[in-house]
Amino acid sequence: MRVGVLTSGGDAPGMNAAIRAVVRAGLTHGDQVFGIYDGYKGLVEGKIEEFTRKHVSEILNRGGTILGTARLPEFAYEQVRKLAIKQLEKNDIDALICIGGDGTYTGALRLSEMGVKVIGLPGTIDNDIASTDFTIGFSTALNTACDAIDKLRDTSSSHQRCSIIEVMGRECGDLALYSGICCGAEYIVTSQTGLDKEKLLNDLKTNRLQGRRHAIVVISEHMTDVYQLAKEIEEYTGYECRATVLGYIQRGGTPTPEDRLLASRLGGYAIDLLHEGTYGVACGIKNNKLVSTPLADALKMKTKRNESLEELVQNLK
Ligand code: F6P
Q1: Most buried of 174, 242, 266, 284 (most Cβ within 10 A)?
Q2: How many angstroms does the Cα of residue 286 sit away from the middle of ligand 1?
């Protein structure tokens, strides 16, 4: 088989490990593997190169993606996708492995509807793909967020301040929820929990009156203007308050062993599925078992509320 591999959307640590696994497993099966640069954009532009083992050596532990990535909203147009298919035909590529998040999966599904043999691999720090327990990159981003929050706790407690820390996650609260629990945050606000500002302010005020020296609030991006919220907390509770937006630092760095392992397993699994004649699916891991889900279903599955972890947060207050 001649298999193409691309990374698309926001980069995530572990994408390189996934590319490496696809290339190595493909070559082991006797395939030819082609790296497609800069996501769907590069595919449309024909930025395609045949990969050898050497192309993917020394990348297992590297953050980012050696293939580069891009967001291409125009891929929603059939005309643009037809250009992509022309490039696949020109290079005699039989099947495509697309590594990314839900935008990447949507592109993959559209290509699959047009007859392309596609497999999706979940690569995003957001953990917002419900057809897998964990996405490649989430573990590393969680580590980065925890490291940063631990540091902020040091200064926050020394100064008896309230620290608001905004983490990424787009529509999914997992980064906030997991990092908040791991770092003992007093409050965790996500799009799943919602922001009850009045309650937050009152609770923080009570905490302060009860003698708690400092407080940590972890909040998902896009919930509110955290700098404005910090001002309101200062005015209402008496805590000095500082807001920190962790931002793109969460997307970089050396992938954790968990991400390397997940990426290696999923990359190899994608090649196995192609050889079995299975495509049009998203690969994932559920209860430590490799699973494949039709792309259309993977996209329909909404990221569910993690009720048991939310309950844990309440119990640990
Ligand atoms: O999907 C990954 C992610 O980092 C989200 O957490 C964030 O909302 C978004 O990408 C930022 O996208 P961009 O790189 O286009 O600014």
Answers
A1: 266
A2: 25
